[in-house]
Design brief:
heterodimer, A: 561 residues, mainly alpha, 5-stranded parallel β-sheet, 4-stranded parallel β-sheet, B: 152 residues, 5 strands, 16% strand
């Protein structure tokens, strides 16, 4: 977009503009414009030449209306602010329950459950080195464990985001708890937070290592199941956060995420599902970096592109299918170990960007996340940050407050072009599934990660306390990192698991396990339905994963040098 | 290759051999991939593994590949397994290999790691220069120890 592109009928504009340019150059000389993280050169000033308000209806419209740039709901944060959803999980199910009650007392309006890494890998507690159990997430293997996680919490009235990759055993266990408590499944609400197996395959490999074709099959079955029985559940969260934390630029992360969503939607269509029915339950999950305006533009452009994709590629007529619902998490990669309290300022700026970007749900990182698993005090500050922004700073008074800013609109357009370029590259590669099988996406992200690190090392990207304004100081606060649960607590849990396996109705468990294998082998049965049946019949998380891997095989990440 | 990085190699007279790996359950590998690129760009021979390596696999690779340095990336408490790795290396007669850890390591755990013989812990913010320079230094130490062991 050149500055000469638009001729404006504004009397005096050209003269005044030329005068300003002269004065600016006299003070600073001719400088190269800095590039933002997505590689867009940012000018010192934006004017009516960069965005023409005559394009208002085409580019912006109104909140809740096409093209959705200004937000997906008519009232946005005035009507309902975002959901405060903090990631938690550590130790035993009892530890998790205690932590959950604390964050509810501090104002959290929804919960999330992060399982132990052993659970991520698809193992039960009795299959792994006990040293690592509960060090980084809650150890949840059985319906009894899940019951303990949610003791005294009315699961029918509390929204829960489960960090629960394919094959979604945690959701199965939660549904088993609901059945036990006689809470109808129709009242269970929340999100399968980590259902995006492609992002796991590409970026962080935190998946159960079902090989790709198996993960693909189970995901669609899971969506079918949720559409049928769980009206309050979002079975799919497409995770741009992994892409960006893995190194993708903001524009790449958005483009790759939309391409992933296109892949999943195509897979659902291939299964005979109706886009107007399944698309409204698609949600997104993004990283919010500290590149403030770029992030806001990323979200605005994402909303605009998504409504076009669902209407043009999938023919969606249902306005609910046009909504680009997303959860944002402030970026941990931007936080520094040096002068950790500075991270509170970073998280605040990131959170504001997410709010101005129109998010539906927000996780703010604890400032000490780069030091250890967050402490309770730091987690409380992270929640208070949201409260301050929401209740003191007046950020929710006006919908899309940067809309109409020449810079924001011009940047949104430029980000849109960058994002569309990425989508076109993935389309050319045959879609996201094929692009990740071929390693194309891994290569793109790896190169961007390295390029960013090189900018930091060269001092082109300032990081306060790291490559500028370094001070020699030891930690400023007494920090008491959360420690792994005591060995006895872990031993007790492993014992409890063994007792659980010994005491259950073996015939029912065996039958459910066999049914699961049969469903996985078949072409037409719903595998996720069998997983839920298995969980209800007392089969454990690790057993379900093992049985599925027997059929689908272990997947290995593609390491692209 | 910038000229600043090349002298490491020439000063040593050999390209250091470095195993970059992850043990435990975590799969996040942005850091380990970047570090592997740094070391390769500096002329080192890097053996890179996927995450989730068993301790025994790491020991076997270190032996087969005759590495000078092992770099373990740990972002979510997998470093708690380090004592097991250090013991296994010693038992396999690989005590000369210098081991470094990078990632999210709480302060008190860092002290414990150094205590059991880890040469250094790299935290977020560690620079390319620091990582490359220290790795070269540790590689030289490893070779010296190895040659001494061979002589004696």
């Amino acid at each position: 977009m050149t500055e000469q592109a638009v001729q404006l009928p504004l009397p005096g504009f050209e003269t005044a503009h030329a005068e300003w340019r002269g004065n600016y150059a006299a003070q600073l000389g001719e400088q190269a414009n800095p590039e933002n993280r997505s590689g867009i050169a940012v000018k010192p000033l934006y004017t009516a030449q960069d965005w023409d308000p005559d394009n208002y209806m085409d580019d912006l419209g109104f909140p809740g209306q096409l093209p959705m740039t200004r937000g997906i709901y008519p009232s946005m944060h005035r009507g309902r602010t975002w959901t405060q959803r903090q990631l938690i999980g550590q130790g035993t199910p009892e530890d998790y329950n205690a932590r959950l009650k604390t964050i509810i007392a501090h104002g959290a309006t929804a919960g999330s459950l992060i399982p132990c890494n052993s659970v991520y890998r698809g193992y039960d507690a009795d299959e792994v080195d006990p040293l690592l159990l509960g060090t980084c997430g809650a150890v949840v293997n059985t319906v009894d464990d899940m019951e303990a996680c949610y003791r005294d919490i009315p699961i029918g009235e509390f929204s829960t985001a489960l960090n629960d990759p394919s094959p979604f055993t945690l959701l199965a266990l939660l549904l088993a708890v609901a059945k036990r408590r006689q809470v109808p499944w129709s009242r269970i609400s929340g999100t399968s937070n980590q259902s995006d197996y492609i992002s796991h395959f590409v970026c962080n490999h935190m998946f159960f290592r079902l090989a790709l074709p198996g993960a693909r099959r189970v995901l669609v079955d899971h969506i079918v199941f949720a559409n049928k029985y769980l009206p309050g559940w979002n079975p799919l969260s497409v995770v741009g956060q992994h892409m960006q934390q893995g190194g993708a630029t903001p524009a790449e992360a958005m483009g790759l995420t939309l391409s992933t969503a296109i892949q999943y939607a195509n897979d659902c269509v291939a299964r005979g599902l109706d886009p107007d029915e399944f698309l409204p339950s698609f949600t997104f999950f993004f990283d919010i970096s500290i590149s403030f305006f770029e992030e806001i533009a990323k979200f605005r452009a994402g909303r605009r592109i998504w409504q076009r994709i669902v209407r043009e590629r999938f023919g969606a007529q249902n306005p609910k299918a046009w909504r680009f619902k997303f959860h944002g998490q402030t970026s941990g990669v931007d936080l520094t170990r040096e002068q950790p309290l500075n991270n509170i300022a970073r998280v605040t700026a990131q959170a504001v960007a997410g709010i101005f970007g129109g998010l539906q749900s927000l996780h703010t990182d604890a400032y000490d996340e780069v030091l250890s698993v967050p402490t309770e005090a730091a987690a409380r500050i992270a929640i208070s940050t949201q409260e301050i922004l929401k209740q003191e700073a007046g950020l929710t008074d006006v919908i899309d407050p940067l809309g109409g800013s020449y810079y924001m609109e011009s940047l949104t357009n430029e980000m849109e072009d960058k994002i569309l370029d990425v989508i076109a590259r993935i389309d050319d590669a045959g879609g996201m599934y094929q692009a990740v099988e071929a390693g194309l996406v891994q290569k793109m992200i790896g190169e961007s990660a390295l390029a960013f690190q090189n900018k930091v090392d060269a001092g082109e990207q300032t990081i306060v306390g790291v490559n500028k304004h370094r001070v020699s100081e030891e930690s400023e606060l007494p920090r008491v990192p959360l420690r792994p649960p005591p060995a006895q607590a872990i031993e007790a849990q492993v014992e409890r698991l063994k007792r659980y396996k010994a005491d259950r109705d073996q015939t029912a468990a065996q039958r459910a396990n066999d049914d699961l294998a049969r469903a996985a082998d078949s072409q037409d049965e719903n595998v996720f339905e069998s997983i839920v049946d298995a969980a209800c019949a007392g089969v454990t998380h690790g057993e379900i994963c093992t049985r599925l891997r027997d059929v689908y095989g272990f997947g290995d990440p593609l390491i692209v040098p | 290759m910038s000229t600043a990085e090349q002298p490491e190699r020439h000063a040593l007279g050999f390209p250091p051999r470095v195993l970059v790996t992850k043990i435990g359950f975590d799969g996040h590998d942005r850091g380990s991939r970047i570090v592997a690129s740094f070391l390769r760009d500096a002329g080192m021979e890097v053996i890179y593994t996927p995450p989730w390596q068993e301790i025994s696999q790491v020991v076997r690779l270190a032996l087969e590949e005759d590495v000078d340095v092992i770099g373990v990336s740990s972002l979510s408490t997998d470093h708690l397994l380090m004592p097991k790795l250090m013991t296994a290396l010693a038992e396999a007669g690989l005590g000369h290999i210098q081991v470094v850890v990078g990632g999210i390591i709480p302060d008190e755990d860092e002290a414990a790691l150094l205590e059991i013989g880890v040469a250094k812990v790299f935290h977020p913010g560690a620079t390319r220069e620091e990582i490359v320079g220290d790795t070269a230094k540790f590689a030289a130490e490893a070779r010296r120890h190895r040659d001494q062991e061979t002589v004696s």
